[in-house]
Each structure stands twice: as structure tokens, then as C-alpha cells.
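Protein in question kept underneath.
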Amino acid sequence: MELSGKLQTTLEVDTLIELFAQVMGNQALYDSLDYHAPTSGMALHFGQDEQRNKLGYNLKVLDTDLGQIVVSRNKRYNKSEIAKVENFLAALLYPLRNALLYQTAIESAFLDSLTGIKNRTAFDSNFNREIELNRRKNSELSLVVMDIDFFKRINDQYGHAVGDLVLKQVAKGVEETIRSSDALYRYGGEEFVVVLNGTDQLGARLLAERIRENIESLRIESLKNLQVTLSLGVSMMNEGDTAETLFKRADEALYVAKNQGRNQVVMSE
């Protein structure tokens, strides 16, 4: 009853497992508890290092995989303790399923359905936080705004199916070029944004040029004669910058790149 009541208070997976671990710990049912989520890569650990006497469970509701929990301790488990562990796990199943479904829904709302990268909603939600975090750390932050050149012409000449393929290939190419600490967003239409954490002006320019070169060398499957290029505008965070001013400078640099002939990188003033 105590466990069921606690598990109804949250839809955050990590908080849910922490509450579960607390109740199990109060019953001395583990020295070590590990949870691995089914798809997100989330791995949570509570207590000591893994002990020699282990109980491992693959958690499922109907055909839905909810992950794996392993509890272990130095003392051997008896039958009544195993039954108690399994009763606690039974109480966890449906709250955990609901939390995982909620997490999936939230993540989907922040992903672009075509390219699989973060969308405009995610950018609007994250960008202010990125600026404040880098400011507190006294770290540099740069922004790259990019646009596929003559994208309307691609759609008109080859059709929207090819246009969609171009968007997906460009997103993949940019994602493979940037670092794991950087964030790529599809801002809208054929426009993309990369937030470069801990990157100064020189580093941002070098990365933007590398993105431009990689996309210029990209060849779309079955359309080897179709060349895709990008125009890119780059700005670096200054003292007193807001999300709006930082983005505006990069966006203005992008339009300079387009007006100067496209397929180039322009740094903001």
C-alpha cells in the first residue's frame, strides 16, 4: 500500500525508480539495485556495487517491454524474500508503463517527424537555458543558422518525395559532422540551427565550413546529378545577448550569405 501510493505521485521514470528503490531499501531487500530502460539508454544505480546473490527481472506488461531490474546483496535470498521482491515489482509495473509512455510522448513532441532531429518547439524550449548555462559557466557559445539553397527548385523539379529525402540526408550529414555536445534542430522548412556549446568564433567558423563542405559533397541516392548546398550564418554570444539578439545576428548573416551567392559561411558582425 505504501509503495502503490508513492508510485502514483510521479510520471518521471528516474523519480519513480528512486521511490521504488527507497521502499525496497527500507525492507532490506537489496544492497545494490540497477534499472535499465528499454530504449532510451537510461541506466540507474542505487546502493553499493553489485553483490554475489542476484535477482534479475525483465519487466513487461502484455507485450510492452519496460526494461530490466536487478537487485543483489551479499546475503542469500530466501523464498519469502523473493516473493516480497516480486510483489513489489508487480506494484511497479503499471506506474512504470505510464511513466515510460509519458516520456515517449514528451520526447515525440520535441522531435521532427521527418528527419528525427529536434524541432522548433525543442529549440524554443532549450535555447534560453543553453545561454544561461554557458553564461554561468563563463563559457563561449556560438550559433549556426543554415538554409538549403534553392530548395523550392528541388521540390519543383524532382517532387516533394525527393525534397523530403534531401531534408533527411542533410540532417544526417550535419548530425554526423557536429560534436555530441552540440545540438541540431530543424527550425522550419529547409532551415536548420546548430547550438555550439563551448565554441568560440574561430571554432564555430571552422565547424560551419566543415558542414558546408560535407553537404556540398553529398550525393542523394539514385540522383547523383543533384547537388545540395547550404548557406550558413554564424554568431557568437556576447555579453548582454538574449536568445533573440543572438539568433537575429546569425539569421542576418545567413541572408548575407544568400545574397552574396549562396554555398558559403558568413560570420555576424
About this structure: Residues 2-109 form a domain with the Beta-Lactamase fold (CATH 3.30.450.40).
